[in-house]
Design brief:
The structure holds 2 protein chains of 2 kinds.
Chain A (H helix, E strand, L loop, with lengths): L2 H5 L2 H22 L3 H21 L3 H25 L15 H23 L13 H11 L1 H22 L5 H9 L1
Helix pairs in contact in A: 2-3, 3-4
Chain B lengths: L10 H21 L3 H25 L6 H31 L13
The chains are: A mainly alpha, B mainly alpha.
Chain lengths: ~180, ~110
């Protein structure tokens, strides 16, 4: 496929715009000097990824991403930020001073990963674009072939729930227990 | 009939986007001091993996939707990880009045 044919396709314009938005917001997530802003930039990056899933005709996963991540996980993150009273104003102490080494490592990683996928898949194309995956197929897969992993994942969620409550619960000190008994 | 644009999107454009997102996540993981922000970077990396899974699912057409099922599992495990991770961070903050990962060197040799 030539570059002209690639650019002529409206789907690729959408891809390019959304990819730029995702990359910009992702960079802001890791560089923003404000914790709350970083969490809100992550919302934008995840919303962009949901658009990518829609482009790849995976509607159910896109909606799950919006519901679970943007709806629940980000609220949990903001909650954690507020509770740990991390500085909500601008603060240079959020990052350490090894930025150059870290940037070099991640650039090398990007180079290796890109080289690997570019050399392995060349001009392969994605095929299901424009033909939505029936949620029926997904449901059959989850509750048929993948029913055991599905139950395991449910159990992981349950244990994380119980574990989270147990770890985060504040035990009363002996003095407080005495006071409670007295009342 | 669905609008057929199948042959006009490269698999590699999604894979390179995923690689870039993953690298940004690695950078955040290495550079951030605040534990909540480290978790945010991990979320970025998991999301990059999800994009890869869905792209491969779309490129190797199967009728089983395996890539989508796996990305749903990744999302679920990420939700569990965030819940438990934040509980741990909360506990550390209560004990040490700080959520900076480089100050947690109690078990460092």
């Amino acid at each position: 496929m030539t570059v002209d044919a690639w650019i002529a396709e409206p789907v690729n314009w959408v891809f390019s715009i959304v990819a730029v938005v995702i990359l910009f917001t992702a960079v802001r997530v890791v560089t923003s000097p404000n914790v709350v802003h970083a969490a809100l930039y992550l919302v934008a990056a995840l919303a962009g990824s949901a658009v990518m899933f829609l482009l790849l005709s995976a509607e159910f996963v896109a909606l799950v991403l919006v519901l679970v991540y943007i709806g629940a996980v980000l609220v949990l993150f903001l909650f954690g930020i507020m509770i740990t009273r991390a500085p909500t104003g601008f603060d240079e102490g959020l990052s350490n001073d090894r930025k150059l080494v870290s940037a070099a490592i991640s650039l090398v990683l990007l180079g290796v990963l890109s080289w690997a996928s570019l050399s392995a898949f060349g001009t392969d194309t994605v095929n299901t674009v424009g033909s939505p995956t029936a949620t029926e197929i997904l449901g059959d897969a989850i509750l048929g072939r993948f029913v055991i992993p599905f139950e395991v994942v449910s159990f992981i969620l349950l244990s994380a729930l119980i574990g989270g409550i147990t770890v985060a619960r504040r035990d009363l000190t002996p003095l407080e227990e005495e006071e409670r008994k007295a009342v | 009939m669905p609008y057929d644009v199948g042959s006009l999107m490269l698999l590699n454009q999604f894979l390179v986007l995923g690689a870039a997102l993953f690298s940004i996540g690695v950078y955040g993981l290495l550079v951030r001091r605040n534990a909540v922000l480290v978790l945010l970077s991990v979320e970025l990396m998991l999301n990059a993996v999800n994009i890869n899974l869905i792209a491969f699912e779309s490129a190797l057409v199967t009728n089983a939707a395996v890539g989508q099922v796996f990305s749903i599992f990744v999302i679920t495990v990420a939700a569990a990880e965030v819940g438990f991770g934040l509980a741990i961070i909360l506990m550390i903050f209560r004990n040490r009045r700080s959520a900076n990962v480089d100050e947690l060197d109690l078990m460092r040799w």
